[in-house]
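WARN retry 2 of 3 for item q-0093 after timeout on previous attempt; input resubmitted unchanged.
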Amino acid sequence: MVNREGAEVVVAGHICLDIIPKFHKANHEVTLDPGKLISVGESILSTGGVVPNTGLTLGRLGLPTVLMGKIGGDLFGKATQNLLGQQPHSFIKQAMIVSPVESSSYSIVINPPSEDRVFLHHSGANDTFSSDDVDESVFDGAKLFHFGYPPLMKNMYLHDGREMVKLLKRVAGLGLITSLDMAKPDPDSPAGQVDWRAFLNNVLPHVDLFFPSYEEILFMLERHQFEEMYQKSVQTGQQMKIDEGLLKQMAAELIEMGPTVVAIKLGSEGLYLRTTHNEACLKRLNLILSSQVSALWKGRELYSTCFEADVVGTTGAGDCTVAGFLFGLLQGWGPEQVLTSAVAVGACSVEAADATSGIPSWKTIEARLSSGWKRHPVSFNSVHWTESESGVWKGLSDGLN
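OK item q-0093 returned
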């Protein structure tokens, strides 16, 4: 049994080995045409998925964290464990579930500069992850349980998320805050045919903090609109545009399903926050926040753009943004401060080719913030927002009952 003394967060769920070829800057426009040879540099071998991306980031920020994922007993599984074990941070502990008869998950990450990444992915042992795999001693002393990527873990999305609910109820019963991150499934895969609205209706009543991306939740709640908007983005060669009205509509629907906090990742456009008015849900935050700070989270609608950064790669940036959010929350901060810590950590992430090596200590990030680190301006319709002193934009309806 590994030493988990003092751990505040358990990060569980999807884990894989990432193989990331380094692209020359001259090759910033990359097309995968049949028979074409693309010259690249050396590859980076790193861990991928929510467990290392969010978990290692929390450890780098100085938060004691346990990493829990399921791997095989093969070479890729051993490489995954070795890479995690090379981390110099004493705040990071492993609680890997090893299945000797299964293959480990891996991804080939095609991540050219100035373009969004593409993944070639094998789920491996992630598909059989279950609540029964989890040893409850992992949670000793922890305050928060974060789980990521059920759409890429077959056992966790089958039967409208029955196994996901089982795990979340078990963890909540131990007195931990529950947190859930998502991923967009391959539309042509079995996961792409799941009734995701039914999954969310079943699972979200057991989630305190919910972190989907705009594209993920659009795919899950408004599939027809997603396909129309996606096709338009392909035709124009531009990223999918953020529709502010649709963003607000989906966030409101998600809050009605049960979580206390919904934070929707908007990629390079930033992070949008919506919180509940439900007093019973808000009391759950008292597990980690004072009652005075918990009150600041009632019925909020906030938005932050990203901080300026020298972008090298975007792999895992959303996971690191979530880590920044969880870090701020566990410091006992209000929503404006937490949103700032989230996008600040996300900006540090994109300044390296992999997800976590660009993450410094929180003291370093804090110094960068204090020096006047600039945010990008709002690039989508901002009529319904006013800027606060913190640099976070506030919804005009913010705080209304």
